[in-house]
Amino acid sequence: MGRLYWKFFLFFFLAQLTTGLGVGLYILFSISKQNASIDHSPIGHSLMHAAQTTLELSGVEATKDLLAKWEGQQLMHRVYVIDQAKQDLLQRKLEAQWLNSLDATINAGPSEDVARVTLADNQSYLIFAISNRGNRSRGWAPPPPNIEDGEPPPPPPHELDHANPLFKLVATFPIKGLIIGTLASILFAAILAWYFSKPIKTLRLAFEHAAEGNLNITVADKMGSRKDELSDLGRHFDYMASRLNTLMQGQTRLLHHVSHELRSPLARMHMALGLALQNPDRAENSLNRIELEANRMDKMIGELLELSRFESGMVALKIEPYSLSDVLETIVSDAAFEASSKRVHVVLKNTYTGYLQGQPDLIYRAIENVVRNAIKYAPNDSIVSIHCTLQAEGKLIDIEITDQGAGVLETELEDIFKPFVRGHSGSQVVGHGVGLAITKQVIETHGGKAVAKNLKPYGFSVTMTLPV
Description:
This protein is of the alpha+beta class. The chain folds into three domains: about 35-175, Beta-Lactamase (2-Layer Sandwich); about 215-315, Helix Hairpins (Orthogonal Bundle); about 320-465, 2-Layer Sandwich (Heat Shock Protein 90). The chain is built from twelve helices and ten strands. It has helices at about 5-35, 40-60, 60-75, 95-105, 155-160, 165-170, 175-210, 230-280, 285-310, 325-340, 360-375, 435-445; strands at about 75-80, 115-120, 125-130, 320-325, 345-350, 355-360, 385-390, 395-405, 450-455, 460-465. Strand 2 and strand 3 form a beta hairpin. The two termini are about 40 Å apart.
């Protein structure tokens, strides 16, 4: 699973974790707050009134006995009776927050949560209840013992609780915890939406610009420091836009070069036609010139169509075993006639006697283009050599063709395999600059590569690498 998945997971996990912590903290705070305050539940009030009646009618000792008996029964409500010195009758420890809550309740005015009793000896006592389980009654404790003068025991819970169950549900629902969780979820959802919508919006705008033809736009630098699938998508978009821009510029240049290359022979054909009309006696020479130019145009158009087929991937290779040695010997034999006019010797210094897999006629065309190109640029009375070398483990073979010419500029090496690129000395020879482009496409279609380099102190080399 990718990095984007884990970011979604982390955001939602943090949202849920924050919600859980918020609800938990609210409950803990509520319980702590309830335990730190005077109880005001009906059961607490009932026990408090029972202790008040006992103190008023039976005195301090009877009240001590009653409180001790309740203490032994471990009721969920504990009743405290304190004197003017704020000492409990049973000498139990009083928490500071209870006393603070007691003072706050008394200062607020008369309250049903605290009972004040003044005996005949002018001793004053305060009676209140503390719940060990919060302020709401959740169970029924045993009733206190019989009280003098027939004081009835506290009523059962169903008489104390509210009769409406909907009211009870609303009263016990943790609405504050729900609010905390909701706010936390909204916060993290907003952050998550912003975090992922911003790069998506950037990509959408970039695609709109690309659709309008503006391929110079970049996205990766607007992604910030994020490292996920969206940033990868931005980088791939930049690469795609750059490649498309390069291809479109290449197509524009190709159209320009084709127009230029076609204009020249057409101009010469018009000139020959005009001479033939003006001088019928020399019509045969003019027709021969027109035929020559027409053949050149036909050859160039054929090469362009073949190059286009390779670049579009429309060529389906007919794979079969072939002898590389036989292909090279045929090329040397066919190139001898063209090379003899410049007294250039084509030499096969080292060959490979094994078999390769591919389409032999295309391999022949690719290697022949390089050899003929070397013959064109080689000086008179020089040598064009062909040398085969197996690379490590015998998985690849290099076919290197070298000449003793002046080579090309270093800045032109990367473009030498592009259509209509002929180097600084291209105007000195006849051609269209398409041969090496076809060679590169054929070699790459067979799973290899073609590399050109200048030799020291002079010379030029093209190396074609094919899988064995």
